[in-house]
Structures are given as structure tokens and as C-alpha cells.
């Protein structure tokens, strides 16, 4: 039987691209809202015929988005800003990023390849510190969710 406990302390994530390689998971100043990985395409489409017959269409696309939310005070913001600026200088380097998220306590591994920065993050400076949201488009997301019973390390 797998464990029923989740902790962000178990989550490690990394960004690697033309502007550098560094940690973006636990310990990087991640905000409470954390890291989101979203597929943009449905896995398939169901088409219904005039006579009630049906047809499934399986789609091959695995593209999506990755959103990382950091506290305004996180030093990782400066690393990401420099990496974004380096990558956006040329089409030769844009979209060459890779993001990998792992949770060994749960057995999860999510790999995001072909990552290109979606936009410069919005910045809000007010009475209280805000969250800085970094978003990438990913050409391919491969996901393996574990059972909570990972192999002994």
C-alpha cells in the first residue's frame, strides 16, 4: 500500500536551457501556489454520426505549459530573468529549454522538453510582496505518476 502523504519538500525541479541550469523546486523560493503543468490538447476526440455511430480519434500532441510561481524575494527570479534574456536573443536558442519535476517519495517524474518562454512575467509592487509567475510553452510533456511506493533508494 502506498503512502497517503504529499509534501512539497519532496519535490525537486530543474530548468536547463541556453541561459543556464538551476533548481526551481523546493528551496528555490516557490510560492504557495507552486508549479503547474498543463496539457493544451485533449488526448482524443469523439465524433458522433447522424445515425448514432461513433468514432474516436487519438491525438499525438503532448504540448503544454509549465507555470512556476516564485515569491518576489526569491533569488531564482534573477536566474530565470537572465536565462530568459539569453534565450530570446536568437531563434537558434529559443525553445531549447528542459524542465524536469520529480517527487521521489511519490514516484512521480514529469519531463517537459522544447520549453520556450511564453512571456515576461507581470510584476506588481504594492503594500505586500507579490508572486512572480514564469510560464513556458513546452513542445512535449511526458508524465509518469507514481503509486506512492517508490523503489528503495
Give a verbal description of the structure:
- The protein is mainly beta.
- It is globular, with a radius of gyration of 18 Å.
Helical percentage: under 10%
Q: What is the count of helical runs?
A: 1
Distance between the termini: 18 Å
Principal-axes shape call: globular
- Enter the CATH topology name: Pnp Oxidase, Chain A
CATH architecture call: Roll
What is the number of E strands?
9
Question: Which percent band covers the strand fraction?
Answer: over 45%
Q: Rg from C-alpha positions?
A: 18 Å
Strand order of the largest sheet: 2-1-7-8-9-6-3
Domains (count): 1
Mean pLDDT: 93
Which spans have pLDDT < 50 for at least 5 consecutive residues? none
Give the helices and strands as they follow along the chain: EEEEEEHEEE
- Supply the CATH class: Mainly Beta
For the biggest sheet, the summary is: 7 strands, antiparallel
What structural category characterises the helix and strand content?
Answer: mainly beta
Show the helix and strand layout.
Layout: E1 12-17, E2 20-23, E3 30-39, E4 44-48, E5 54-58, E6 64-71, H1 76-87, E7 97-103, E8 108-117, E9 131-144
Antiparallel strand pairs: 1-2, 1-7, 3-6, 4-5, 6-9, 7-8, 8-9
Kindly summarize this structure in a few lines.
By secondary structure, this protein is mostly beta strands.
Features:
seven-stranded antiparallel sheet, 153 residues, globular, Pnp Oxidase, Chain A, two-stranded antiparallel sheet, 9 strands
